[in-house]
Amino acid sequence: MKRILKHPNSPIILNSWTIVSRRKDIREQLLIEQDNFCAYTEEWVNPSFAIDIEHFNDSLKDTNQDGYNNWFAASSKLNREKNHRKYRNYSEVLHPTENLNTRLRYDEQLGIYDYDKSDIAVDGLVKILDLNNPILSEDRRNHISYLKTELEKRCNNSVGEFIAWLNSHPINKRYRTAIESVFGVNL
Q1: The pTM is what?
Q2: Stretch 71-88: mean pLDDT, rounded?
């Protein structure tokens, strides 16, 4: 999961959009701000996909404390599958706006995210989002292998050309955290 930066000049804030009155606009703006990536799966999505406005901290939903900093564009499927009661089993969960780079590291060999198991917030996030699911880990490993082939074949091992190619084919930027770690790039 890549860190998501919230924008102080977001139209959502500047125009005081609410879920009740501007749900569609909020969803579309969150997708723009997240570069069309699901906040949790790191899958590239387009606006026609089923995307929800995820209230990261579900206990804030329908309260005065809920708002832009708690809203993320997320896959409807994952949002439905995410067991909010499971969320409450963790005293602390790392928020998507926090810097993950030093606390959550991608292990290329295993295709999983490694972290200090005593870091309760990261442990909660990894478990809630099932980031180290074996099927997902295998898909990540295969995708990284594919990108390595493309870097060599299409881009002659030029990182600059590789980034340009990724930007022209955004669907290949899925698993951005893993890509950034393996290729030493910033997407």
Answers
A1: 0.79
A2: 73
